[in-house]
Design goal:
Length: about 270
């Protein structure tokens, strides 16, 4: 019997990977795959009032709750939110993390992004990609003898180059999963992001009122299938089906990783 596929989702903060990969995570877990979430930072700057250990403990608990809901495990690395750089320390910490898990595929963000932590995370994954198999680098951790496939999740940034959708799958049926994951990360989606992005202060509101506010903004979203993703869906499923999709998860294959195998492709785009 073949070993189950091992997928590692690497993000900058303790909610990034859950939000960006909840649909494919749900599918992978349902197919018997092993999924590990990794946050490069503790998320200790992501709140308008909470600070220090209180915020770290809150975000760790939220991350573990989300991971348990999705059937994954969560590892949070000890770097400061808002201060992550592609340093040797961060690279070697991530290197050991990847080698210890031995992923077949890594999902992460591209290195072009508005947030410096996101950019650093994408760069760190690139920096680790070849060195995963070099024994003289981090010699205390066994090297990987097989390079993982590396997939970038979708973004809207165009400088220096737009995201390219190589694979995409419908995510309409994953919307409630996504909403539940957002609710798991209450400090972010019920506190911080309404305050930071929407300029809405929910202080003093009950939990139920905060969830109601999140639901109202969530339901306002009319879809994320742009021309590039639509073309990808059309290639994979045909035009008639593609036109019915409002929400999708899509991925760009990184040139720094291994090619996508037939088995992985089926997991990414299969509809069973």
């Amino acid at each position: 019997m073949s070993e189950p596929l091992r997928a590692m989702m690497i993000g900058a903060h303790p909610d990034d990977v859950d939000i960006c990969t909840c649909g494919i995570t749900k599918r992978l877990v349902s197919k018997g795959c092993i999924v590990r979430f990794v946050s490069m930072t503790t998320g200790n700057a992501g709140h308008q009032t909470m600070r220090g250990e209180e915020l770290i403990k809150t975000r760790v608990a939220e991350a573990q709750k989300s991971a348990a809901y999705l059937g994954a495990t969560y590892e949070i690395l000890p770097f400061d939110d808002g201060r992550l750089t592609p340093s040797l320390e961060a690279r070697e910490t991530l290197m050991r993390t990847i080698r210890n898990f031995k992923p077949d595929v890594i999902f992460t963000n591209r290195a072009c992004d508005y947030h410096p932590d996101h950019r650093a995370t994408g760069q760190l994954v690139q920096d680790c990609s070849y060195l995963m198999g070099v024994p003289a680098i981090c010699p205390d951790t066994p090297v990987l003898r097989k390079t993982p496939t590396i997939l970038y999740w979708a973004d809207g940034f165009t400088d220096p180059k737009p995201f390219r959708s190589d694979f995409a799958r419908p995510a309409d049926d994953d919307r409630e999963t996504l909403f539940h994951v957002e609710c798991c990360h209450a400090s972010q989606f019920l506190d911080w992001l309404p305050w930071a992005d929407d300029h809405v202060d929910l202080a003093g509101k009950t939990h139920e009122e905060r969830v109601e506010y999140l639901r109202s903004t969530f339901n306002w979203d009319r879809g994320d299938v742009d021309e590039d993703v639509l073309a990808c869906l059309t290639r994979q499923y045909g035009a008639e089906f593609a036109k019915t999709v409002r929400f999708a998860e899509s991925w760009q294959v990184s040139e720094y990783g291994a090619p996508v195998s037939d088995a992985l492709k089926e997991l990414l785009i299969g509809l069973d």
